């Protein structure tokens, strides 16, 4: 039981559900599902300080959508995750997107990928309804900001083109990043949908820990004293509201 508890409290563990983020989950799910059903593109800007469940919520949404697509409840789609911290440069995002859009494993340069993507999305309105749908998670958007801002602009411009069938979910740590960093033309593309994740409260942090401990042989209270959870939740809520922090402390 103890080893299982340590594993479930690890920040990399994927829980079956996300406590205290039900409203945000339903909001993102409803918006993406609606775009897929309509065969349209769109952009959703998701902000919040680190450790507030943004990326985990998007992953949960995508899992739900994949299940519905497999049940033929919504059109099939291809998912791509682009993490700004894992790219050698912001323009590498072009090569990643082209690999998914084209279905080709052979890698092309970012410049060539951009040229092909421009052609693909400019012709999107001429493609039939059988054309593929793509959902792209742009995680750590803060890391993809360039001096020219061309990468961010293109990724938010393409979904607005007719029948692009490209849905972009942009995840960043700051709510006002568009206003602080991006030029007006880029901000205008982000004005469609915004969802902010507030820091977790003390009670929410406590529930996150207890929900992960439930379901084992021992009761959650036998694995970790309620007072210990309460104290940890109070301290983390007072500093950051970061769920990853309380999971580390609990382990």
UniProtKB/TrEMBL annotation:
Presence of the UniProt keyword S-adenosyl-L-methionine in the record: no
Q: Which InterPro entries match?
A: AAA+_ATPase (IPR003593), ATPase_AAA_core (IPR003959), Cdc6_ORC1-like_ATPase_lid (IPR054425), ORC1/CDC6 (IPR050311), P-loop_NTPase (IPR027417)
Location(s) in or outside the cell: Nucleus
Which BP terms does GO give this entry? DNA replication initiation; mitotic DNA replication checkpoint signaling
GO cellular component, alphabetical, reads: nuclear origin of replication recognition complex
- Signal peptide as annotated in the record: none
Q: Which Pfam families match?
A: AAA, Cdc6-ORC-like_ATPase_lid
Record keywords: ATP-binding, DNA replication, DNA-binding, Hydrolase, Magnesium, Metal-binding, Nucleotide-binding, Nucleus
* Domain (AAA+ ATPase): residue spans on this chain: 40-196
Q: Which GO terms describe its molecular function?
A: ATP binding; ATP hydrolysis activity; DNA replication origin binding; metal ion binding
Q: What does this protein do?
A: Component of the origin recognition complex (ORC) that binds origins of replication. DNA-binding is ATP-dependent, however specific DNA sequences that define origins of replication have not been identified so far. ORC is required to assemble the pre-replication complex necessary to initiate DNA replication.
User: Subunit structure, per the record?
Assistant: ORC is composed of six subunits.
Q: Which family does it belong to?
A: Belongs to the ORC1 family.
Quote the protein name from its UniProt record: Origin recognition complex subunit 1
Organism listed in the record = Dacryopinax primogenitus (strain DJM 731) (Brown rot fungus)
Q: What is the lineage of its organism?
A: Eukaryota, Fungi, Dikarya, Basidiomycota, Agaricomycotina
């Amino acid at each position: 039981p103890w080893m299982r508890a340590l594993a479930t409290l690890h920040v990399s563990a994927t829980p079956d559900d996300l406590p205290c983020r039900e409203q945000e989950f339903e909001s993102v799910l409803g918006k993406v599902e609606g775009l897929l059903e309509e065969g349209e593109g769109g952009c959703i800007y998701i902000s919040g300080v680190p450790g507030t469940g943004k990326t985990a919520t998007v992953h949960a949404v995508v899992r739900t959508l994949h299940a519905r697509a497999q049940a033929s409840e919504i059109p099939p789609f291809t998912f791509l995750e682009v993490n700004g911290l894992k790219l050698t440069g912001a323009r590498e995002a072009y090569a990643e997107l082209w690999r998914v859009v084209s279905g080709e494993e052979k890698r092309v340069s970012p410049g060539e990928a951009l040229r092909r993507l421009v052609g693909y999305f400019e012709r999107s309105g001429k493609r039939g309804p059988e054309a593929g749908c793509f959902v792209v998670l742009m995680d750590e958007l803060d890391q993809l900001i360039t001096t020219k801002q061309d990468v961010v602009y293109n990724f938010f411009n393409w979904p607005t083109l007719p029948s692009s069938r490209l849905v972009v979910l942009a995840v960043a740590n700051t709510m006002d990043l568009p206003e602080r960093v991006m030029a007006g033309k880029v901000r205008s593309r982000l004005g469609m949908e915004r969802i902010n994740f507030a820091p977790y409260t003390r009670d929410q942090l406590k529930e996150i820990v207890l929900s992960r401990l439930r379901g084992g042989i021992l009761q959650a209270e036998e694995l970790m004293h309620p007072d210990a959870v309460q104290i940890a939740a109070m301290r983390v809520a007072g500093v950051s509201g970061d769920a990853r922090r309380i999971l580390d402390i609990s382990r």
